[in-house]
Each structure stands twice: as structure tokens, then as C-alpha cells.
Amino acid sequence: MAKVISILGSTGSIGVQTLDVARNLGIKVAAMSANSNIDLLEKQVHEFKPQLVSVADEKLAAELKNRLAGIKVQVLWGLEGMLRTVDIQGSDTVVTSVVGTAGLIPTMHAIKNRKNIALANKETLVTAGQLVMQEAGVQGVRIFPVDSEHSAIYQCLMGNDEKQVEKIILTASGGPFRGRTLEELRDITPAQALKHPNWSMGSKITIDSATLMNKGLEVIEAKWLFDKGLDKIQVLVHPQSIIHSMIEYIDGSVMAQLGSPDMRIPIQFALTFPDRQPNNFPKLDLLKTSQLTFEKPDVETFRCLQLAFDALKEGGTMPAAMNAANETAVAAFLKNRISFTGIPDIIERVMLAHTVNICPCLDDIIEIDGWARRQAEKEIKGQTDIL
Questions:
Q1: Mutual orientation of helices 58-67 and 38-48 as an angle, nearest 10°?
Q2: pLDDT one-digit tens code per residue, 60-90
Q3: Could you give all domains of the chain from N- to C-terminal order, each with its CATH number?
Q4: 150 labelled binding-site residue
Q5: What is the pTM of this model?
Q6: Does 173 show up as a binding residue in the annotation?
Q7: Which GO terms describe its molecular function (predicted)?
Q8: What is the dihedral of CA 365, 371, 377, 379, to 10 degrees?
């Protein structure tokens, strides 16, 4: 069980829920980073009394430092602040819950400093899965998945021979627009897309869930976390979000992990592994669960899922290019610069323009990330000009 943790992204959805778990279990928080929500970060500092906090820039850091005058806490900013957050002395586990590729460098830094990782940042493995897993192996670091789906897989594998796995089955809620046609999706607004039927998440992840890109990113994550090829990973739409994922074994047995759609449960498991601890979170009542249904995902309407499969098949730097294009397109959609259906269009165009580097180093991945964002902006401007 984690005794002392650091949190990247303490004011985001996962960060706030991680602090709820820490509060419940009495886990000490040594350091926290946030982007710009210093109002919430200030409250968190007062309650959890970390040694160090970090924010996005120097101006925010100066304001936060003034607010925390008289409290013994170091206030830093930028990438250097994030690196200090993860390598702070005394912390044994880093919860990486920042959104996007911003989490890649700090996560690699934490691994090099031999910190266990509770991973909620999908993009770290999507963009640099091979490098991250190799470094974790070299340093003897454990990576505990926080995503409910990967946590479910992790639990279904416990006590079993991974060589006897026939298939990983990732479940997806289908998002708020399940069953709609492509034509019906053209006029979707950001406000509509941010209303997820089951989960409470940050805005970027919620949009990814609506496009099914979130599931595509999880497919790539699963490949690296569990060392399985594309032919061993299947996605099923499960609207009730009760079965979080499943493993099919070679003898036909299927193991599933069930639970309420509450992210605090997989967060707690990541922090208490291999033990389990009681909590007061809502428990699953099977008598109130009328049905569990499954559907094949509609990858023609929700093309982002297929694009993620395509990127994984291409390999090398293609997933990094795809991810950067998606982040840029989602941000543009949230600002009403492009349509909902414009998101996969932008991603596909960037992928078509990308020349894959099959064996990249970390610097290559960072370079491709920047290129893909610039290319996506060009494509967005082209769409905007047409509109």
C-alpha cells in the first residue's frame, strides 16, 4: 500500500477523487501540481499540508505564494515544478492525472527516480508506451492502472497465467450519442457532448468518450500494459458501465470485474495493491441492475476508435501524432472552432500527412507531438475557412 504520494493534477477530476481516497485511508500527500485552479489548490494545501506545490506559470505561483504566506510549503511552477513534484523525497507513489502529453516527461522522470506510478494519464502510454514500459522494467517500478477498464483487466489477471489469456475485452459506455447516425452528430454542441451518461470526468476525457477516442486510447494503453497484440484486444459497448472489462481465457472462461461507475474504486485499488481496504463509496446493488447488454461499436459513425486501431497497427510515432491531433481537435471543438464530426476529420488528415518513425526515442516523440499539433492547426484553419 502507498504510504506517501505525489499527485500530478490535484485539482482535476481524478486528482480530487485521489485526495478523497487519501483522506479516507490516511495516506500522506507530499506534493501536488495543478494547472491554474489556485483557488482549489489553496484549499487542498490547507487540508493536506504538502511540502511542495507547483502551478502552470510564475505569475500564478507568485499569487499562490502570497495566499499561503505563513504556511510551510514550497511553491514552484512550470515543467521544473512538475519534476520536483514527482521526485520529492519521501514519496513512494506518483499519481499521474494530468491530461494530455504534459504528463509524459514527468512520468518518465518519476520512473527514473524509482517511484511507483498510479497511471491515470492515458497519453503517456499512447505516445511512448514502449519507452515507458522498458524504463519501468529497468528501474523495477510498478505501474498500476487507474482507468477503470485497465484496473478491471489487472484484477482479472491476478492469480492467473497471462500466457493463457485468449482475449482482453474492453468495455465502453458508448458515450452520450450511442445509436445516433453521422448526420445526427453534425450539429452536436460542446454542452451536449460534455453530458456523459455514467461517469464524472474532465472535459477533454468526456469529449473523447463521446467520440469513442477514449476507448481507442485505452486499446493502445492495454497493448503496452498487458503486452498483448492488436488481435488480442476487443472493444464491446456496454451502456450500463457495470462490467468494467473482461478477460477471456483459452479454455473459454471469461472473468469480469464489476462495480459502481465510481473512479475512486480503481484509484483506491492502485494505491492499496495488493491489499483491499474498506470505504464508504456507493456499492453495486445487483438487485437494482435490471440488465447488462453488449453491442458492437459503430466504428463507421464513431471513426476515432478505428483511427486509434489504425495508429496502433502503424506503430512507431503514429500513435503520438494521432494523439496530438486529437488533443488539438478536441480543444478546437470545445471553443466552437470546428464541428463534432470535424474531430476525426482533423485526426485523419494529420495521420495521412505523417511519416512514421518506427523506432523513436523520447526526443523524437516530443518533436512529432509538436509537429502534429501545428499540422492539426493548419487543418483546423482550413476547415474554418470552408465553414
A1: 50
A2: 999 999 999 989 999 999 999 999 999 999 9
A3: 4-145 (3.40.50.720), 161-261+283-300 (no CATH), 315-387 (1.10.1740.10)
A4: no
A5: 0.93
A6: yes
A7: 1-deoxy-D-xylulose-5-phosphate reductoisomerase activity; isomerase activity; manganese ion binding; NADPH binding
A8: -100
